[in-house]
Design goal:
The structure is a homodimer. By secondary structure, chain A is of the alpha/beta class. Helix content of chain A is 44%, strand content 15%. In chain A, the strands form two sheets. A six-stranded parallel beta sheet of chain A has the order 5-4-3-6-7-8, with helices on both faces. In chain A, strands 1-2 form a two-stranded antiparallel ribbon. In chain A, strand 6, helix 8 and strand 7 form a beta-alpha-beta unit. The longest helix of chain A has 19 residues. The first copy, chain A, is elongated and about 60 Å long. At the A-B interface, helix 1, helix 5, strand 7, strand 8 and helix 9 of A face helix 1, helix 5, strand 7, strand 8 and helix 9 of B. The first copy, chain A, binds a DNA duplex through helix 3.
DNA sequence: TAGATTGTTAATCGATTAACAATC
DNA sequence: TAGATTGTTAATCGATTAACAATC
């Protein structure tokens, strides 16, 4: 079983996107130093990451862009299409449903859910909307792997229960709630936007911002 | 100069919100073990965090909710209102402009910017919208401290330049670009949603998700 | 060959966890 | 007093960085 740490996957994911860009620009090779510059990390970190993923270039020569991209795609499964859904069609949820940033990177949003009938009837969206109680049914039926959770706090518990029931494999949690308990055995990643703002706010209040910390 | 590590600020920020909730529920005291349960972290980690921030309870007794909240607010400056703006009024930008999640936590969005005149004329938003070239002027004039960056990749560089010119203090970067170079001396925090999805996707593809990793 | 570059081992750094005396 | 809880010191853990031989 391939274990790769979180920071490493994050960097490799960013590298994967970068390689796509470089391909367009008809760059054939790229060194770890180049990559480090683009991504804002140390070159040795990049080499270590590739090594962790079991990817190896040729000593002395730079990495070949096309093969490196393919290898990352293969080892980490980035190429695969993943069916996804959005839970909670509020401001943020609608925006995510409608945006096209996901498609280009392999995520296919196929459904939206909300508990408010009014929302279901009035919101115009590209994908089909369903009432929240249908989450287990539709998730299972359509083989949805990833859920993007954008409900208000009081809707979190029931949503997670339904997703678990439907057999979802991962939840991207935009709520401030801690769902790891309820979502045992499912991958969870949290993005608390306001929390990020608060951290930023603290950092920016320090007179001397030498450490420009990244996520 | 108070240095507090990123993970610690993140937890204290979450704790601050939690204490607000507990106050509503008329809880007068709370132990580090309780807090740990709520936030999904070890109790000793909480005690360490408070210690880092120079906050101390009374040995033997639990923490008093109201005073703990006040102390965090005081030490980390969470109480202060921070003027903010959104750069790029696309899908995500509009959603963030319109949402009310910020206000309740001290962030006051006072302006939006976009380079597309059409957007400026047609989008209905609560706050005033300005053309992008006015960023330096308005940011300085209105004392805007925080910028939320939601522009497409090709608009990133010029946006950051303008923000720096206006003297902004922190940027919450929703683009996939690495802006730390351009934003030297300014606090930056990155939220790459699709990158998060990709990491999640990798984790969920592992059969055994014992480590339910958090951000 | 000389200069650039890789992959890996060892050293460093920082954050989390464990242990425990002090206190209510 | 006994049980629960804190604050801090020491130990552990994991990730990043440095160093360098091997290779093109």
């Amino acid at each position: 079983m391939l274990f790769i740490s979180n920071p490493t996957i994050e960097r490799l994911s960013r590298l994967y996107i970068l390689l796509g860009e470089l391909e367009k620009d008809v760059c054939s090779t790229v060194s770890s130093a180049d990559i480090g510059n683009y991504l804002g990390v140390k070159r040795t970190s990049i080499r270590k990451d590739l090594s962790f993923a079991g990817i190896t270039g040729t000593a002395g020569a730079s990495y070949r862009v096309s093969t490196l991209k393919q290898e990352i795609e293969h080892k980490l499964g980035f190429g695969k299409k993943r069916k996804s859904c959005v839970i909670g069609i509020g401001k943020l949820g609608s925006a995510l449903l409608d945006t096209d940033i996901f498609e280009s990177r392999g995520f296919d949003i196929v459904a939206g859910f909300d508990s408010n009938m009014n929302v279901l009837e009035t919101r115009k969206t590209r994908v089909r909307l369903y009432p929240a109680y249908k989450i287990p049914e539709i998730v299972r039926q359509d083989n949805i792997e990833i859920a993007i959770l954008c409900v208000p706090l009081k809707g979190v518990d029931i949503s997670v229960e339904r997703l678990v029931e439907g057999g979802v494999k991962g939840i991207l949690n935009f709520t401030a709630a801690n769902i790891s308990e309820k979502a045992k055995g499912i991958a969870v990643k949290n993005i608390d936007i306001v929390n990020n703002l608060q951290v930023l706010s603290f950092q920016s209040s320090l007179s001397d911002v030498t450490s420009n910390i990244q996520v």
